[in-house]
Backbone:
């Protein structure tokens, strides 16, 4: 383990500690029932961290087998991260089923197509292709989160806590992975140890955000919002609500059309 470096080992250990803390918070506050996809993602990340640490310790940091084990685990964790982001979108758009159906399909299709294309053209070696696919997948997630907040702002759908903080954690980590993997692709061998250290710090920051956001049980009902003056609300709210209802109804009708054909 000497070739991994003491900083990487310390960061690795801290990630495992906070992953355990976050899993404990999820079950203690019963948020695992509201966010099963997110709980599965954090549990998988915990298993992946421990497994990769054991693999590198047993076979060595430069071992090809340890490398394959580590990236295989990373691929599974990335898939679960995508499902967790989709779950987050579903919570924000729970009132608008038609809109949620459209976004979920677009997100799933975009993730699959971008990941496959990136893996195919990412490079000659398997490592470069996996790296490119991971970068593309996280880019798709970052774009999806930005799109979710732009949509929510445009239609005045206010994301509640802890969804807002959870989305921020996903966005920050995905953006860092995209930037870090881009640099790593150009200096693969020399930058790899430092890349691992920075990746762990980025993930540790997201873990801290998630632990803080989920420290309380998920509220079934939203707290009373800060209302605008009555005149402003009466002037703009009917138009916004009508536009949102029309879009939602149209999307629901489109999603039913294939099933209704003879």
Residues:
């Amino acid at each position: 383990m000497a070739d991994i470096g003491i900083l990487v080992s310390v960061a690795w250990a801290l990630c495992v500690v906070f992953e355990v803390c976050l899993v404990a918070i999820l079950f203690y506050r019963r948020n695992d029932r509201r966010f099963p996809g997110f709980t599965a993602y954090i549990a998988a990340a915990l298993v992946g961290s421990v497994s990769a640490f054991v693999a590198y310790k047993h076979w060595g940091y430069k071992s090809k087998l340890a490398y394959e084990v580590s990236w295989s685990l990373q691929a599974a964790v990335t898939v679960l991260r995508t499902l967790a982001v989709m779950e987050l979108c579903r919570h924000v758009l729970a009132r608008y089923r038609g809109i949620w159906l459209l976004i979920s399909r677009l997100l799933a299709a975009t993730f699959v197509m971008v990941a496959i294309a990136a893996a195919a053209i990412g490079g000659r070696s398997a490592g470069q292709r996996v790296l490119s696919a991971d970068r593309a997948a996280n880019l798709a997630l970052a774009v999806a989160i930005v799109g979710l907040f732009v949509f929510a702002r445009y239609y005045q759908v206010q994301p509640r806590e802890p969804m807002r903080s959870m989305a921020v954690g996903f966005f920050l980590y995905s953006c860092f992975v995209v930037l870090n993997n881009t640099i790593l692709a150009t200096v693969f061998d020399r930058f790899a140890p430092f890349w691992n250290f920075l990746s762990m710090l980025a993930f540790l920051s997201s873990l801290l955000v998630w632990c803080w956001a989920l420290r309380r049980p998920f509220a079934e009902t939203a707290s009373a919002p800060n209302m605008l003056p009555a005149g402003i609300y009466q002037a703009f709210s009917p138009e916004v609500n009508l536009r949102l209802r029309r879009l939602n109804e149209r999307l629901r009708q489109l999603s039913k059309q294939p099933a209704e054909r003879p």
Q: What stands out?
A: The radius of gyration is 21 Å. The longest helix spans residues 230-260.
